[in-house]
Amino acid sequence: MLARLQQFTSFVVLAIALASAGTLAERGQPLWAAVAFVAVASGSAIVLAVEFLLLPWVNRNDPAPTASAAQLLKAWWSEVLAATRVFCWQQPFRSRVQPDNLPSRADGTVGVVFVHGFVCNRGLWNPWLGRLRRVGVPFVAVDLEPVFGSIDDYVPIIERAVRRVEAATGARPLIVAHSMGGLAVRAWLDACHADARVRRVVTIGTPHRGTLMARFAPSRNASQMRPESGWQRALAAREPTARYQHFTCFYSHCDNIVVPASSSTLPGADNRHVSGVGHVDLARQATVLCEVLRQVGVAGPACLPEQIDGP
Q1: pTM of the entire structure?
Q2: Which of 74, 168, 178, 258 is most exposed, with the fewest beta carbons within 10 Å of its own?
Q3: Which helix (H) or strand (E) segment is 167 a member of?
């Protein structure tokens, strides 16, 4: 469903840009035609620029390190490139290019379950999946649907994925989750009492304590991600205090979606700050990939380069 929606959105934006440019070109205004095309096509870059300009103010009282102007500028540009690639290519057109990898002879190997975030699908992980396939790591990447439903709706999806990896490997899987996916994993751990079935949970830019940006989305799952939402308070109240010790939480002071920045951390977890990186771009950092590979017993050149690129 999401892939088709994002395909439609991409084509509509391109059509509007071409129509605007074509109209102005027919009127003998080629310069303004070019300006119109760029303005429409780069609308998301403008929105992202506003988000990054507001970050210093939003994070002014947050304990995360203060981002410099140079870091914010670099993070904005990298986020423009990363978001364009993910939302206009990987997710709408390539979400199935990397099928799940559960080889018949995977006994004893640590597998990975990938859980994406809000308004995303498994295509987010394509570069990761290619890397893990090449080094022989089993994995399953889920699609969380309904796209705008409750986070609790995703519990059975994660349960099925974990069972598939368990059956193929006979070992507890590592779970890697981006953004809202980390909350879905916590909901699964709570509903299925599954702490003993997981090797570790790695979250990337997850709004563990909510995000102010969720106030601008009307969906059910967005309302659950608002700071101090009833859903989050109820979940936290049910969780055993020792659970967070099995989490590694990556976060950034340049995260343009999870604000304030330290909302991506958990008390007692292994909280790791990644400097100068935006929200989607966090899922492309070799620092994060290297930690995942280390957790599954793979190391070395598979971690390079600095950012993870792929189909």
Answers
A1: 0.93
A2: 74
A3: helix 155-169
